[in-house]
Amino acid sequence: MNSLKQKLKFISMKNYLKTILVFFITSISYSQYNSEGCLTIFSEEGDKFFLTLNGELMNDIPQTNIRVEDLDQPFYQVRIEFENENLIEINKDNINVIDVDDNYIDVTYRIRRDKNNSNKMKFNYFSESPKSEVYIPKENVHVIHFDDIIIKKSTIETTTITTVTDNIGVGANISVDGFNMNVSIYDRQPVVISQTTITNNTHGFDDFGSYRDSCDQKYEMKSSDFNAAVSSVKNQNFEETKLTTAKQISSANCLSVNQIIEIAKVFNFEDSKLSFAKFAYANCIDKKKYFLVNDIFSFSVNIEELSNYIQGKK
C-alpha cells in the first residue's frame, strides 16, 4: 500500500512539474513577443508630414498616416515637420509605447489644427490596444519597421574576423516536497565579430514611399504570424478581397519566396496570382530565387510577364 501511495505521489508531482515547466516556457515566449511596441500617427485634416523618432528620419516622402513597428524602447522623442512650411512643427519628448504595467502596446496619436490658429498643430493621444500578432494595414497607412530602415547609395565593406558560438539560456530550479528539478533552456547563438565601414550614408525610399530592397537578406515573416496571415487571406469570401488582403500583408512584412508561393496558391485565378507575385517582389528577402514562383502558373504567358516585370525592376 505504501509503495502504491509513493507511486501516485510521484506521478502527481511529475504532472505538477510538467505544468510549471509549460507555464515557464510560455512566459518566456510571451515576453519575447511582447518586447516591441507600435506607434501610429495620423493627420485628421490630411496634412502631410515627415516623422523623426529619436533623431532618425522615418520617411523621405511626406505622409498623412504613419505606423512605426519594432519599437524596442519604452519612450521616444518625436519631431513632426509638415510639407506645408506654414504649419508649425511639433516636438514631443517621452512618447510612450508601453502601458502602466510596462507592457509594450500599439498606441495611436492624432494631429489636428488648432481652432484658434490654423498654423498651430496639436498632437493628442488617440487610442491604445494590446499588440496584435498580425496587423493588416489599411491602404492609406504607411508602415515602417524601425529596425529595418535601409541605407541607400551606401558603400558597405565588412571584414569578418571570427565567429564564436555562445550559449544563451534561461534556467530555473523547482522544488516540491523535497523533490528538486533543474530546468534549463539553451539557444546556441552565433556571435560574429566584424569591422564595418559605411560611407555616403543617405536614407532612401522609392517613389511610392516604400522601402525599395529593404527586405534583401533580411528575415522572413515569423511562422506563427505568417500562418495567421495566410488564414486571414483564406477567410476572405471573394477573390478581390483575398488579393487586397495579401497585398496589405506583403506591403507590411518581409517574405521569403516560399511564403510568397504559399500565399499565391490561395488564389483561384492566374491573374490574381500574377498580380500578387509582381507586388510581393519588392519585399522578398531572397529575390535570386524568385524563379521558383514560376511554378504557380499554368500558362507560360504569365511566366513571361512576371519575368519581364522583374527585369524592369533591376
From TrEMBL:
<protein>
    <submittedName>
        <fullName>DUF4476 domain-containing protein</fullName>
    </submittedName>
</protein>
<dbReference type="Pfam" id="PF14771">
    <property type="entry name" value="DUF4476"/>
</dbReference>
<dbReference type="InterPro" id="IPR028011">
    <property type="entry name" value="DUF4476"/>
</dbReference>
<feature type="domain" description="DUF4476">
    <location>
        <begin position="221"/>
        <end position="310"/>
    </location>
</feature>
